[in-house]
Each structure stands twice: as C-alpha cells, then as structure tokens.
Amino acid sequence: MTDGSSVQPLPESEAELAFEGALRPATLSEFVGQPKVRGQLELLLRAAAIQNRTPDHILLAGPPGLGKTTLAMIVAAESGRPLRLSSGPAIQHAGDLAAVLSSLLPGEILFIDEIHRMARSAEEMLYLAMEDFRIDIMVGKGAGATSVPLDLAPFTLVGATTRSGLLPNPLRDRFGFTAHLEFYDASDLERVLARAALLLDLDISSSAIAEIAGRCRGTPRIANRLLRRVRDFALVHGTGADLEAVRGALELYDVDPLGLDRLDRAVMDILLTRFDGGPVGLGTLAVSVGEEAETIESVVEPFLVRIGLLTRTPRGRVATPSAFRHFGVERGSGPFLTDDL
Ligand SMILES: Nc1ncnc2c1ncn2[C@@H]1O[C@H](COP(=O)(O)OP(=O)(O)OP(=O)(O)O)[C@@H](O)[C@H]1O
C-alpha cells in the first residue's frame, strides 16, 4: 500500500498539454468508443445542418479525461462553426458571462468547461441566454437601477461537467441533449493507444498496448500519458517499446496492475487500514488523504466504484470484499479510527 510519499505519476505540464492537443481526434469518426454518444451527436448535428440552424445546447458529463473537451471541438469542426472556449472558474460574476455572450459571433459554439463552478448570478443570466438568446443587463445601482435587454447572436452552448448533480435543474433542463461519457473498455483503449502510437511514429508491440490499456483507469488521457512515459523509458534504456518497457515505466511511475495511482491507493489505504473498510464519510476520507472532497468524489471514486473496490452507501464509503483481497488486508486487524475527524 502507499506511504503517501511516492512521485505524482502524471504531472500536468505545458509539454503534456501540447502532447494531448496533438493527439486529439478532430472528427466524430476519429473519436474512438462511446458509440451511443457519437450516434446521438451525429444525429443532432445533421438535423441542425439540414434545417440550417444552430445545434441544440449540449451538456457533456463524466469523469476527467474521457473526451469532453475533444467532443466540444469536434462539434464545432463538424458543424463548421467557430469555437469559443471558457470555463466555470473564469466566470465569477454575471458581468464576466455578459462579456463573453455579447461578443459571440452568429452560430458560434461556446464551450464552458467545469460549468458547475460558474457563479450563481451568471447561471441565472445563462438561463435566459440559452432559451431566448437574450440577456438583461443591470445599469445603475440601488433604487435607480434598471435592466436593459440585450439581444444575442444565436449560439450553441456546450457545457462540460464532472459533477452534473451539482447543476441546478433549470440549467440542466435547458440543454437539448446530455451525453454521459463512460469509462472506456480495454479494446477501445487499445484503439486509442494504437492511433496515438501511429501519430507519434512509435513502434510498439501489441502486448505492450494491451498492458497499458489495462492500467490506465479506463481513461484515454491517462492511456496517452502512460504511452509517453513508455516511449521515454524505451528511449533512455535503449529498448523497444515492448511489454518489459511498459512494466518498467509503470513500476517507476507507481501505477499498479489495476491502474490505480497514488491517490486511489491512498484513499483505499485509509479506508481499509484505518477504518476497517468503512463506512466513512466523504469529508473524513478527504481530510485523511489531504485532498479536496470534490477531487475524491469526481476523480477518484468513479473509477474505484467502476472496478468494484468501493461502494457509496447512505452511511458513507465502504470497501468491498474484493478491495480487502486486492490489497491483502485482513478485516478486523485494527486498531481503527472512527469517523469523527
Ligand atoms: N474517444 C477518444 N478517442 C481518442 N482520443 C481521445 C478520446 N477521448 C479523449 N481522447 C484523448 O484524451 C485526451 C483528453 O481528452 P479531453 O481533454 O477531451 O478530456 P476531458 O473529458 O475534456 O477532460 P477534463 O474534464 O479533464 O477537461 C485528449 O487529448 C485526446 O487525445
């Protein structure tokens, strides 16, 4: 189990972001997996094209790294419309949103990443903008304040969120279509990796690809980053990008056979060895591993639930019997803490 001091396996740097951008599929047909979402989006975009109107507003929901930003870019490219990028944390006042909305070109696609983190006052402005392509701007203060309506150019909002449950219903209801992105299965991840290897001109064995696909948390972003680490490993050690290189690189970067990273293991470690498998509240878990509750809930837990190591119950988070087996921990081998941190 982790001692919490290991190297962060997947650092985000300028180079990583540039690398990610270079591997982004540009069309729906290049976008691997998620067949249901692809089919739904294709229909929506085609119908809009036939009627020569802006596509309906689209909400993309799912854990990080599954392709939400990529799909927003594809929506713009496939519909031949310009794309404006923004994010919830950048919209802290209604005025920030008004500035973006009032400068949109007709038919532009507005992508708001992490839309659940936008200011409440901006959310309310967005309701009207999405429905009527209009906003009300407050001019003046106090008793003399008046609201001036401003017509907007028709646009399509593409919102992305890792926490769709946090969006208020009136906002969620104004999206014509919500796509729920799922973790990718191994065969789709192998296709993501084969495509990336081709683009990187990397000669990699099929067993190496299969090994990475099984250890990337069902997430294309992680698959591509691990591929890069394997390429580094092969380069430095003067070997081919083969199974040995994958095992060597993933051991070095602390990625376990299930693909769990440092934070995943820290959460399971606390749950199993300090709370005897739970139930433990989310806040307690977050404090214990020194992370934000939101990160645990939206980044760590979905994958642990998906692979059957953790369940969420009304009383808190609980480790499953297979988690005890996987980590070789005996139930009841305390001493344990109680959930009163
Ligand atoms: N279906 C896919 N096929 C091929 N590559 C993909 C696919 N989905 C994602 N990727 C790759 O994964 C990387 C991360 O995708 P993206 O940035 O779209 O994820 P995201 O869901 O927007 O993440 P976040 O929520 O953290 O912003 C991209 O660079 C892209 O190369």
TrEMBL record:
<dbReference type="GO" id="GO:0009378">
    <property type="term" value="F:four-way junction helicase activity"/>
</dbReference>
<feature type="binding site">
    <location>
        <position position="317"/>
    </location>
    <ligand>
        <name>DNA</name>
    </ligand>
</feature>
<comment type="similarity">
    <text>Belongs to the RuvB family.</text>
</comment>
<comment type="subunit">
    <text>Homohexamer. Forms an RuvA(8)-RuvB(12)-Holliday junction (HJ) complex. HJ DNA is sandwiched between 2 RuvA tetramers; dsDNA enters through RuvA and exits via RuvB. An RuvB hexamer assembles on each DNA strand where it exits the tetramer. Each RuvB hexamer is contacted by two RuvA subunits (via domain III) on 2 adjacent RuvB subunits; this complex drives branch migration. In the full resolvosome a probable DNA-RuvA(4)-RuvB(12)-RuvC(2) complex forms which resolves the HJ.</text>
</comment>
<keyword id="KW-0067">ATP-binding</keyword>
<protein>
    <recommendedName>
        <fullName>Holliday junction branch migration complex subunit RuvB</fullName>
        <ecNumber>3.6.4.-</ecNumber>
    </recommendedName>
</protein>
<dbReference type="InterPro" id="IPR041445">
    <property type="entry name" value="AAA_lid_4"/>
</dbReference>
<feature type="binding site">
    <location>
        <position position="65"/>
    </location>
    <ligand>
        <name>ATP</name>
    </ligand>
</feature>
<feature type="binding site">
    <location>
        <position position="221"/>
    </location>
    <ligand>
        <name>ATP</name>
    </ligand>
</feature>
<keyword id="KW-0378">Hydrolase</keyword>
<feature type="binding site">
    <location>
        <position position="174"/>
    </location>
    <ligand>
        <name>ATP</name>
    </ligand>
</feature>
<dbReference type="GO" id="GO:0006310">
    <property type="term" value="P:DNA recombination"/>
</dbReference>
<feature type="binding site">
    <location>
        <position position="68"/>
    </location>
    <ligand>
        <name>ATP</name>
    </ligand>
</feature>
<keyword id="KW-0963">Cytoplasm</keyword>
<dbReference type="InterPro" id="IPR003593">
    <property type="entry name" value="AAA+_ATPase"/>
</dbReference>
<keyword id="KW-0233">DNA recombination</keyword>
<comment type="function">
    <text>The RuvA-RuvB-RuvC complex processes Holliday junction (HJ) DNA during genetic recombination and DNA repair, while the RuvA-RuvB complex plays an important role in the rescue of blocked DNA replication forks via replication fork reversal (RFR). RuvA specifically binds to HJ cruciform DNA, conferring on it an open structure. The RuvB hexamer acts as an ATP-dependent pump, pulling dsDNA into and through the RuvAB complex. RuvB forms 2 homohexamers on either side of HJ DNA bound by 1 or 2 RuvA tetramers; 4 subunits per hexamer contact DNA at a time.</text>
</comment>
<dbReference type="InterPro" id="IPR008823">
    <property type="entry name" value="RuvB_wg_C"/>
</dbReference>
<keyword id="KW-0238">DNA-binding</keyword>
<dbReference type="InterPro" id="IPR027417">
    <property type="entry name" value="P-loop_NTPase"/>
</dbReference>
<feature type="binding site">
    <location>
        <position position="312"/>
    </location>
    <ligand>
        <name>DNA</name>
    </ligand>
</feature>
<feature type="region of interest" description="Head domain (RuvB-H)">
    <location>
        <begin position="257"/>
        <end position="341"/>
    </location>
</feature>
<dbReference type="GO" id="GO:0000400">
    <property type="term" value="F:four-way junction DNA binding"/>
</dbReference>
<feature type="binding site">
    <location>
        <begin position="131"/>
        <end position="133"/>
    </location>
    <ligand>
        <name>ATP</name>
    </ligand>
</feature>
<feature type="domain" description="AAA+ ATPase">
    <location>
        <begin position="54"/>
        <end position="185"/>
    </location>
</feature>
<dbReference type="InterPro" id="IPR008824">
    <property type="entry name" value="RuvB-like_N"/>
</dbReference>
<dbReference type="InterPro" id="IPR036388">
    <property type="entry name" value="WH-like_DNA-bd_sf"/>
</dbReference>
<dbReference type="Pfam" id="PF05496">
    <property type="entry name" value="RuvB_N"/>
</dbReference>
<dbReference type="GO" id="GO:0005737">
    <property type="term" value="C:cytoplasm"/>
</dbReference>
<dbReference type="Pfam" id="PF17864">
    <property type="entry name" value="AAA_lid_4"/>
</dbReference>
<dbReference type="GO" id="GO:0005524">
    <property type="term" value="F:ATP binding"/>
</dbReference>
<dbReference type="GO" id="GO:0006281">
    <property type="term" value="P:DNA repair"/>
</dbReference>
<dbReference type="GO" id="GO:0048476">
    <property type="term" value="C:Holliday junction resolvase complex"/>
</dbReference>
<keyword id="KW-0347">Helicase</keyword>
<feature type="binding site">
    <location>
        <position position="24"/>
    </location>
    <ligand>
        <name>ATP</name>
    </ligand>
</feature>
<keyword id="KW-0227">DNA damage</keyword>
<dbReference type="InterPro" id="IPR004605">
    <property type="entry name" value="DNA_helicase_Holl-junc_RuvB"/>
</dbReference>
<dbReference type="Pfam" id="PF05491">
    <property type="entry name" value="WHD_RuvB"/>
</dbReference>
<feature type="binding site">
    <location>
        <position position="69"/>
    </location>
    <ligand>
        <name>Mg(2+)</name>
    </ligand>
</feature>
<feature type="binding site">
    <location>
        <position position="69"/>
    </location>
    <ligand>
        <name>ATP</name>
    </ligand>
</feature>
<feature type="binding site">
    <location>
        <position position="184"/>
    </location>
    <ligand>
        <name>ATP</name>
    </ligand>
</feature>
<feature type="binding site">
    <location>
        <position position="23"/>
    </location>
    <ligand>
        <name>ATP</name>
    </ligand>
</feature>
